[in-house]
């Protein structure tokens, strides 16, 4: 101990105690076991009970999983081979392409969605990982057009026209930004629409240029369809959600009322109703003879649905920010757009990450609801063509288990990423 | 009516070589403000000259914070005139942003941006509002961070700094915009006693350089040392204003006497 003057009442510490290592009995595996699994008799009983339940589950599942058959060509052949214990995973190998791409995507073109899937990871990385050079964001910008070309085929002129339209809109927006936000937004939209309209004729003329075999929207299916709907709707609903959340806070009563009505209406209606509207009812309102792509209609509905939820999540984030942040931004002379973009939204979105991911994961799983309006996503494929075939009628566990696994892997990935992002953005050191 | 302005109208005493010009920085005339039905500010008349250091004190709820927040339009006034550097405050957003970029403000709770580093906090407004090139803005920011004596913390985040350091960063952040007027809203009220001095020293230094300052504070030592006018507010009105010596030794109104006896009494 330090040399204190034990005899006197007045006390002055003369030497400070150094840091020391803890006693040996306070470290190691034995201590961990004792503390975490057997700290008291009830805990010990719970531990043993859990081990027993775990054993029961694994003893049932493992033989089914390991003793399964992967090569049979029908359920009858499979049942003979596995003799009751194993699963008929042969359905997955035999119907692999159908599960992933649907049953009418041309089989010679499977490389296209596969390539689009791989490119997705490359092109989304600049958005997900802020440390990558900001120039690589151009990949992200190009991806929607490349992916469209790969998935739907046709001439490359169509996506190029699409890109040019966006570029024209952006140029028009920048050129008029000094005249006020609403006007320049309108100018941008008009410019884009003009380019798209004129480009439509060009694309028709040049329909043979660098053309891939065209694929109809109704031929999209399998997990590919879930991925298309999921990625498109998540990436669209985030900006719309932000706009709705800001609109709901607006001082202009008209904007505020529109946003509130939209959010409350969408939140009050089940998604499946909206999908039925997209599928059936919308056709009544459109002029006869108009073809309005089914996938596009579904994307619009799911996006509207998700953006209403995301708007509410972001509103929570905005409300959690201290008023002082708004005041500090104001007092420095930042205008509304700058204050939102540089100060308020970065913080509000960071707070909202768990909620946004919650909505995104939910949205991704909800894409399976399209199977009810006769679109053949992975669940639609299982329910329809695969289970209805005489070859595989009755193979439930393996098929639905596979679908569950696909979704679990994707959603768990999203969730892990969001936790990484939260840790990375934690700069407030609270 | 005119009694409130007597000090401003008299020739100014030169305090510790700090100059006060006769150019007007802020002119407030017959200004009134309501929060709903509550009349927070009543008939405020105040003229601030360039280079003046004004300390505003008064009991809580007297409207002193609201008064200085009206000067950079963080609060809207409903009646009367506020002119900042010759420009009259209106509801025109562009004009308000212009005035705000000329008027620096420090808050009780610092209000630094927690998601940005100290340096980024300081360079943000010059880059986006003044369109200063990034490199130049960073050099400028380092100059002011050196001035408030924390250049070595430039790459940390606000949450890693002590309260006193954060408030000094907030001052540097305002200075980076080269403001003509600085407003301080109880800058030391949220600080530990040990840290109050470092912030006050920074403010004194600023005053010695001739910055026009309006400061809501209870630091009477600061008022004695640098202010050339002390304003006492109660119930939304300016009750008394005078030079610090007169104000502390010879308060005229009973309300001021009571207030001073309460804050100086221990």
UniProtKB/TrEMBL annotation, chain A:
Record flagged with keyword Ubl conjugation: no
Spans through the membrane: 41-66, 110-129, 149-173, 180-203, 223-246, 258-282, 294-314, 369-388, 394-414
Cellular component, GO annotation: ATP-binding cassette (ABC) transporter complex
Cited SUPFAM superfamilies: MetI-like (SSF161098)
Any GO BP annotation: amino acid transport
Entry keyword set: Cell membrane, Membrane, Transmembrane, Transmembrane helix, Transport
Intracellular or extracellular location(s): Cell inner membrane; Cell membrane
Family the UniProt entry places it in: Belongs to the binding-protein-dependent transport system permease family. HisMQ subfamily.
Name of the protein in its database record: Inner membrane amino-acid ABC transporter permease protein YhdY
Automatic annotation (TrEMBL), chain B:
InterPro entries: AAA+_ATPase (IPR003593), ABC_ATPase_HisP-typ (IPR030679), ABC_transporter-like_ATP-bd (IPR003439), ABC_transporter-like_CS (IPR017871), MetN_ABC_transporter-like (IPR050086), P-loop_NTPase (IPR027417)
GO molecular function: ABC-type amino acid transporter activity; ATP binding; ATP hydrolysis activity
Pfam families: ABC_tran (PF00005)
ABC transporter domain: residues covered: 26-260
Keyword ATP-binding in record: yes
Keyword Transcription regulation: no
Entry keywords, A to Z: ATP-binding, Nucleotide-binding, Transport
Transmembrane region(s): none
Domain of life: Bacteria
Family: Belongs to the ABC transporter superfamily.
Name of the protein in its database record: Glutamine transport ATP-binding protein GlnQ
Originating species: Palleronia abyssalis
């Amino acid at each position: 101990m330090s040399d204190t003057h034990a005899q006197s009442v007045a006390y002055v510490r003369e030497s400070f105690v150094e840091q020391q290592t803890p006693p040996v009995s306070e470290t190691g595996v034995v201590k961990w076991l004792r503390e975490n699994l057997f700290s008291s008799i009830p805990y010990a009983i719970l531990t043993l009970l859990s081990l027993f339940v775990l054993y029961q589950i694994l003893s049932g599942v493992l033989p089914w999983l390991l003793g399964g058959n992967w090569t049979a060509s029908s359920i009858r052949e499979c049942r003979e081979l596995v003799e009751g214990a194993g699963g008929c995973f042969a359905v997955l190998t035999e119907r692999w392409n159908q599960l992933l791409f649907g049953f009418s995507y041309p089989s010679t073109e499977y490389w296209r969605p596969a390539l689009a899937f791989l490119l997705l990871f490359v092109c989304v990385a600049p958005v997900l990982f802020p440390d990558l050079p900001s120039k690589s964001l151009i990949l992200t910008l190009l991806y929607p057009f490349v992916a469209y070309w790969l998935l739907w085929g046709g001439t490359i002129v169509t996506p190029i026209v699409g890109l040019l339209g966006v570029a024209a809109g952006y140029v028009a927006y920048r050129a008029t930004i000094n005249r006020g936000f609403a006007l320049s937004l309108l100018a941008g939209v008009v410019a884009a629409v003009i380019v798209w309209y004129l480009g439509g004729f060009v694309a028709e003329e040049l329909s043979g240029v660098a053309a891939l075999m065209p694929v109809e929207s109704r031929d999209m299916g399998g997990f590919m369809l879930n991925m298309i709907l999921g990625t498109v709707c998540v990436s669209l609903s985030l900006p719309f959600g932000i706009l709705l959340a800001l609109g709901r806070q607006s001082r202009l009563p008209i904007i505020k009322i529109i946003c509130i009505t939209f959010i409350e209406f969408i939140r009050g209606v089940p998604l499946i109703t909206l999908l039925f509207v997209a599928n059936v009812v919308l056709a009544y309102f459109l002029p006869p003879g108009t073809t309005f792509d089914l996938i596009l209609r579904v994307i619009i509905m799911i996006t509207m649905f998700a953006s209403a939820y995301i708007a509410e999540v972001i509103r929570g984030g905005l409300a959690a920010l201290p008023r002082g942040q708004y005041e500090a931004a104001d007092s420095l002379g930042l205008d509304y757009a700058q204050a939102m973009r540089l100060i308020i939204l970065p913080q509000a979105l960071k707070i909202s990450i768990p909620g946004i991911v919650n909505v995104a994961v939910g949205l991704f799983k909800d894409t399976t609801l399209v199977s009810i309006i006769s679109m053949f996503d992975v669940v639609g494929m299982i329910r329809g063509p695969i289970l209805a075939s005489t070859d595989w009628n009755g193979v439930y566990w393996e098929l639905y288990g596979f679908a569950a696994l696909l979704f679990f892997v994707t959603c768990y990935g999203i969730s892990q990423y969001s936790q990484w992002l939260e840790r990375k953005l934690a700069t407030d050191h609270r | 009516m005119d009694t409130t302005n007597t000090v401003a109208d008299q020739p100014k005493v030169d305090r510790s070589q700090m100059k006060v010009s006769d150019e007007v920085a802020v002119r407030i005339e017959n200004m009134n403000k309501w929060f709903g039905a509550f009349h927070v500010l009543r008939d405020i008349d105040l003229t601030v000259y360039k280079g003046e250091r004004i300390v505003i004190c008064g009991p809580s709820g007297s409207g002193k914070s609201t008064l200085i927040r009206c000067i950079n339009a963080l609060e809207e006034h409903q009646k009367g005139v506020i002119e900042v550097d010759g420009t009259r405050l209106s509801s025109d957003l562009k004009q308000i942003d212009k005035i705000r970029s000329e008027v620096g403000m420090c808050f009780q709770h610092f209000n630094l941006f927690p998601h940005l580093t100290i340096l980024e906090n300081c360079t943000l407004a010059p880059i986006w509002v003044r369109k200063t090139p990034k490199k130049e803005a960073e050099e400028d920011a380092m100059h002011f961070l050196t001035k408030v004596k924390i250049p070595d913390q430039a790459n940390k985040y606000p949450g890693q700094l002590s309260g006193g350091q954060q408030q000094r960063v907030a001052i540097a952040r305002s200075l980076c915009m080269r403001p003509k007027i600085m407003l301080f809203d109880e800058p030391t009220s949220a600080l530990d006693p040990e840290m109050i001095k470092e912030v006050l020293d920074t403010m004194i230094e600023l005053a010695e350089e001739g910055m026009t300052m309006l400061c809501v504070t209870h630091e009477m030592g600061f008022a004695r040392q640098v202010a050339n006018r002390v304003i006492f507010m109660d119930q939304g009105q300016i009750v008394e204003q005078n030079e610090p010596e007169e104000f502390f030794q010879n308060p005229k109104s009973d309300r001021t006497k009571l207030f001073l006896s309460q804050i100086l009494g221990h």
